[in-house]
Fold this protein.
Amino acid sequence: MYKLAGICLLAAALHAQSSEGIAFFEKNIRPLLAANCYGCHSSQIAKPMSGLLLDSKAGMLRGGGSGSPAIVPGKPDESLLIAAVRGSGNLKMPPGKKLQPAEIDNLVEWIKMGAPDPRTEGATVAATPYDWDKARHHWAFQPVQDPHPPEAGSPEWNRTAIDRFIKASLDEKGLTPLPRAARLSLIRRATFDLTGLPPSPEEIDAFLKDSAPQAFEKVVDRLLASQQYGERWGRHWLDVVRYADTAGDNADFPVPAMYRYRNWVIAAFNSDKPYDQFLREQIAGDILASAARDKEDWQQKIIATGYLANARRFGSRAAEFHLTIDDTIDNLGKGMLGLAVGCARCHDHKFDPIPTADYYALYGIFKSTNYVHAGTEIYPHTYGFAALNPDDAGKLKEIETELSGLDNRIEDIKANRIKFATPEEARKAQQENQDRLRKAAAQYPYLPKAYAVSEGKPVDARVMVRGEPQTLGPQVPRGFLTILGGQKLPPEEKGSGRLELAQWITDPANPLTARVMANRVWLWHFGQGIVATPDDFGARGEPPTHPELLDFLAKRFVESGWSVKKLHRLIMLSRAYQMASGDNRQNALKDSRNACLWKFNPRRLDAEEFRDSLLLLSGNLDPGPGGEHPFPPEMSWRFTQHQPFLGADDHYATNRRSVYLMQQRIRRQPFLDLFDGPDPNAETGVRPRTTTALQALYAMNDPFFHAQADALAVRVAIQSGTDAERLRYAFRLIYGRSPAPDELRESRQYLDEARHTFEGTALADYQRIRQAWASLMRVMLGSNEFLTLD
């Protein structure tokens, strides 16, 4: 008898190794287990239920907490797995549903075959792959230090701490710094840096004549106090948060109220709102609004959460909403913490100490948040906007609810989820819905409202195994990243956890937040960061070129009350910032990237600076703040993925600053796209710098460029005096300086030849003169000197 049993087991084992057995497993068993079991019993999740792993042969043979194997090869009736799927005992699996009879039969047949299984992975309970003590030694996770700057031998490099750090690095590498920049270059550099606009001839003259030691300091203070400062530096932040005026779904519905968040950002920079408060209001402004000083403060805090509401939408149904939360986490991680947290959605981060459980600890916070509905192809009516007048909230919610209910009913009828006795009855129901829809739309109140978020039903998220929302693993309590403290929400917390998250991120003990922003400010001034990868301070990012300087800046940033304006002054009053651009062959051989900052890097004007300067010089710039865009009436929206919203450029054209241009997600603004503007679909830490033929052809052919050059020609030509005097005025406007004698001679020769070109045409004399001057203005506005900052 024992011999017979041994022969049977040997036969089963041999069958298990046959190619037919493996093929049966791959076709019928592996997909079944992956779809129904891996969500709770996989080595890919932090805490498999009962310690049972079903994603490997060893795991199934070992079993879970009961001490018994899940399968006994050759003996399905003795296998706990079969009892569980049959529901014949206390254990019934999978939870909440039952396998099809054919699926159970396949499992039984597979075990009878000896359970052939080629899998070798996942033999033990998954544990975090990180050595946390080692992970904390990475420079970015170390506490911010307060290093003492070394003394510099040169008096001019010994005046500020920044310069002492820079000079020490230069000396170590044997590099010779270039001299100070010329005063004209310096005021042009500072004015563009802080306002995105060129200095006026009067501002240049005043600075050049001011011989006081504090002359440049006064320029910096004047620029920081201007309205244009917030428009320039607000745009930098809008790059980080991938600002757009549309939702990003497959029909790209407009968001008319989004402009309020854009203007909130601009005002926050102008008022020098402390950066920690700036972040807290964007993450949890609606919660903080309960302690607002007054109605305006309450409104502004609600509007601030447009940061979260601005997360991109995908598809047309709620099934894609997990991607919106993923976009939120990805942007928050890169933008505020300099970490690619989104990489942990499907698996533990391969390079940084961010386990999947940490991702879902954050995911639960945003899953507990109500995101506003901007409209989609299937559900075109908006829902969940925040009324900015508390008295309007009830009426707004009432009509939004009715419109949303009608959208749902119409969709149910289209999908045949509502049955009708006759076609006539179905037709009447559809007509009734349309009538109710028109009536509700006619009553829809166009009240002040914000694209904002609000508190939802608190819930801890379950891990989505391999990032698939249909395959759920264990639940993860809401909390923060383990490497940054791993705080969890207290059990008594009844809210989403966004307020706590905002506090964890802005805690001065958090080593990343201040470092990341200090590095961004440095980058936006110098064109390169102390950390060259501003969105990635992790293992795959670049290490800091001047780690002690970065910590010094971060420490001073926090000590100043998180004042961005004070950080500007600290940087711009340094000798390093005021250095000349240029070249030094010996330096270039040792440091071709200028990582040690032996010179100031020249840079081309970015897209907004170029466009705004054209408008300013032509006299066409409208300096007023931008408001709502002229979108079609909301009740008329019927955009689809085949006929999405596409904003025509002429309809949304404006002579206001470029930060106020309508920016769409599925169709980028052509001018900004051509000159390397930000991508409104993703966080833009560093803009690309391209040089293409299309950019040169733009200056030759574009109607907008020609119109500004023509207006500038009129502005120059109406100046009294000779052509030489007009040319001097044009050079001062465009370049900030007077022309050299040979430039004056060549410009006059160009005008003469241009006038001669138009002879014999139907143009009147004054028109030929105007065309000649406009042609010269196009040449000057398209020149490297105008487009490049030294």
Q: What stands out?
A: The first strand starts at residue 369 and ends at 371. The chain has a mean pLDDT of 91. The two ends are 94 Å apart (CA to CA).
